[in-house]
Amino acid sequence: MATLTKIVTGMEKGPEAINNNFTQLSTFADSQTFKDTGWIKTGVTYLNGTKADPDFPVAYRTIGSDAGPKFTLLRGYINNLTAKNNTTTAVCGLPDLGLGAYLLGTYVSLYEKDFVLGINNNQLTVNNQSGVDVTAAGFTFFMLSV
Question: Is 0.90 surpassed by the pTM of this model?
Answer without folding.
Answer: no
